[in-house]
Amino acid sequence: MARGMGSAAMTARADALTARRRLVVQERLIGALLFGCGLVSVLTTIGIVVVLLSQSLGFFGEVSPVEFLTGTRWSPGLSPQSFGILPLVNGTLLIGAGSSIIAIPLGLATAIYLSEYAALRTRRVVKPILEILAGIPTVVYGYFGIMFVTPILRSIFPQTQIFNAASASIVVGIMILPLVSSLSEDALSAVPRSLREAAYGLGATKFEVSTRVVVPAALSGVAASFILAVSRAIGETMAVTIAAGMQPKMSLNLLESIETMTAYIVQVSLGDTPYGSLEYRTIFAVGLMLFLITLAMNLLSQRITRRFREVYE
Amino acid sequence: MSPAPIAPRGGRFEPRIAHRQRVGRVFHGLCLGAVVFGMLSLVVLIVDVSADGLQVLSLDFLTNYASRIPDRAGIRAAILGSLWVMSLVAVIAFPLGVGAAVYLEEYAPKNRLTRLLQTNIANLAGVPSIVYGILGLAVFVRFFALGRSVLAGALTLALLILPVVIIAAQEAVRAVPGSLREASYGLGATRWQTIRHHVLPVAMPGILTGTILALSRAIGETAPLIMIGALTFIAFDPASPLDAFTVLPIQIYNWVSLPRQEFQLLAAGGIVVLLAALLLMNATAILLRNKYRNEL
Amino acid sequence: MTTPTADTALEARGLSVHYGDTAAVRDISLTIPKNRIVAFIGPSGCGKSTLLRCFNRMNDLIPAARVSGEVLFRGQNLYAERVDPVEVRRQIGMVFQKPNPFPKSIFENVAFGLRINGFKDDLAERVEQSLRAAALWDEVKDRLDDNALGLSGGQQQRLCIARALAVEPEILLMDEPASALDPMATSRIEDLIGDLKRHYTIIIVTHNMQQAARVSDQTAFLYIGELIEYSDTERMFTNPEHERTEAYITGRFG
After folding, report:
1. pTM, 2 dp
2. Of A157, A308, B262, C83, which residue is most buried, by most CB within 10 angstroms?
3. In chain B, how many domains are there?
């Protein structure tokens, strides 16, 4: 009898041990699986870097990097072939600057209004509308640019071309305004109330409190939002492809058509450039340039934000 | 103890309060003007698009394929393509994103490697979408020889929105109170059991909200899909993930680029449908978010 | 105690503050004499800070707060229609519970109030005067351009005092100025307050009764928004009139 119960007990214990072991193995498997999920993002970055670098290296085997970086004529398709990227960079930076002129002051002013002046009810209405503005696809902005903004511009400045940098700048500016506004507002709201009270206590007006205490105190966060917004504008594709045109040139004239790096890449994809040809491989070289510029700006923005957080946390 | 301090006195002040208040009022007006600009932009945009687009909306428009003849053109292939792509993107990005978020929040040690991983994800969120297109082209279309298929497009877009999903899911998981986990561990549950039965259910509404918002970004993406070769003229329904396809934004882009006025109207029609889809998705996400907030 | 004379710096008449339906301050009338230190004491939530903030219209910054009654300063009601709170606040300065220097240099902190109020004389000289008056000059004179946030808690609070003194207020309102500081810093602040009395009228809110007894000339005891007792400090602490005052002072409730 006792031996019978003993062996049953032992079997039960053995079963429990196997079950426990299975659980441990299962836990480890799941942990590994989840780690794998996290790895996907690493693989993505590696993939981007490898693809851009390897194809660009092939490209730079045939085109001198110096010509690429300093040349002012971009004509990979038409002979005489010329691979100076500066016109594309010019176009990209022109849109970047033009959209910033709209988005940065208006976005910051909106942020100040929401953070310092607006009643709760106003904020509840304005903030969702800004989120909607940010969520509208870029093709729609492209359409808006060419169908609405350009005709208006042309009626004011008849010399405006159908494709022009100004329309693109305006719609991209509207597109990134919510980004500036919401990130800046976060930064402004993070400034402790006690600082405002100190300033009011000395006899400052609301305007002075906002501009001479709150904004300077939030400066890093606000600056980071600017940089991030410009980075978005630089990476923007469809709105500029539709509204700004495909004529690479070194020009600061907002009323003319230009071409950005992003629009060029789209242009090649839509065309029938043979895969593997030198002209086709310009996609990767231009893509690399674009990636590096936006990466540098994003890293800078993160660094500034980190410094800002240190002050208030 | 040093002698009692002498109070600052007798200074000349010119507070000019009226002037300063006037300046303040102007500033207030300017800031309000900026807000109005933003609101007006949205209104003008929607009115402009709708005025053109609503003219074109009809059952034929929704069920016809693209055509060189404007009267007979429709967005059927584009809608189906978008549905196909979005479904696949959701199926791919959701588990990967939630898995990565769970790993980062519950498993990963707080060391330099994890912080690097985190920074990497934040950086990926800021990479221009066209670079993802280049990646998709080289890796999915070429290397994995998927061709210009729905699958290649979905994989590309999934990678694009993955960082957004991860960040949103992380926030939702982080918001789950530690006491819940402690209670579960206290009863002898393993880490995964705790996550599966306690953490994830509580975090799920927030995760879903974030995922839907990420998907609503994907539905409007054009450039990456152009890069991987989504065609602009499709006259059939995609039947498998390996079929060629087009999506709504690309169809819109195609019509916008054509010179004839009728095609511009068709583009506007496509935009109205796209915006309606977006509205639906965002409304769902917001309703979910509010329900979640009220339950907390 | 409550009848105004030529030596009255500030007078409150029927002052009440409502947040929605709740009254934080109920119908309080008292006078603050010139060049004296008056302490407001009472348990948490009795309204002493709210009352203090009425005197420089800081409650205006809280949209939910409704103030009724009058505050008379130099014969004028501060809550009259056409009075701009901005005007009031230069002349009635405030020091807050937690030191709140601006994230600027030490010099700029003190200069801020001077700049916005259109100070016409030598700025640097006035900054030095103010820092001396706050007993901080010797410690910071060699690092005026350093960020104020690098100072210790006690130093930051003295900087905030210097900042307030720079614009020549007549009255200084101090809302538990030492409660966030360590004992050594606290005693320095208390000494400073005692010295400042010669030139300023000071109202200090404190939850520390010993501090009130040490520092003030007159004490007002508040309880649930009402003024229970207001008399000479020595008398209040040795022979209070009201039972509740005695209960509070002897520590029978906090």
Report:
1. 0.90
2. A308
3. 1
* Under 8 Å between Cβ of A177 and A249: no
CATH of the domain at B238: 1.10.3720.10
B244 or A148, higher pLDDT: A148
CB contact under 8 A, A236 and B138: no
User: Phi-psi region for residue A245, left (φ > 0), alpha (ψ -120 to 50) or beta?
Assistant: left
Q: Which of C49, C62, C94, C100 to mutate against chain A (most A CBs within 10 Å)?
A: C100
What dihedral angle (degrees, nearest 10) is formed by the CA atoms of A173, A177, A180, A181?
160
Residue A97 lies in domain: 74-307
Claim to verify: residue A133 and residue A260 sit in the same structural domain: yes
Give domain status of residue B289, yes or no. Answer: yes
Asked if A249 and A227 sit in the same domain, the reply is yes
- Of A62, A96, A111, the domain-final residue: A62
CB B107 within 8 A of CB B173: no
Query: Which residues in chain A are contacts of B24 at CB distance < 8 A?
Result: 205-208
Residue B167 in domain:
yes
Distance between CA atoms of residues B283 and B289, nearest Å: 10
> Which chain C residues touch A216 with a CB distance below 8 Å?
103-104
For residue A53, give the 3-state DSSP assignment.
Answer: helix
Using the Cβ of B22 and the Cβ atoms of chain A, whether some distance falls under 8 Å is answered with no
Element (H, E) at A83: strand A82-83
Give bridge partners of residue A82 from the DSSP assignment. A75
ipTM: 0.93
**Cross-strand pairs, C38:** C203, C218
Whole-angstrom distance, CA of residue B127 vs CA of residue B122: 9
Domain assignment present for residue B256? The answer is: yes
- With beta carbons under 8 A apart, name residues in chain B contacting A127: none
Same domain, A21 and A130: no
Give the chains touching A; criterion: ≥3 Cβ pairs < 8 Å.
B, C
**What confidence tier does B1 reach under pLDDT thresholds 50, 70, 90?**
very low
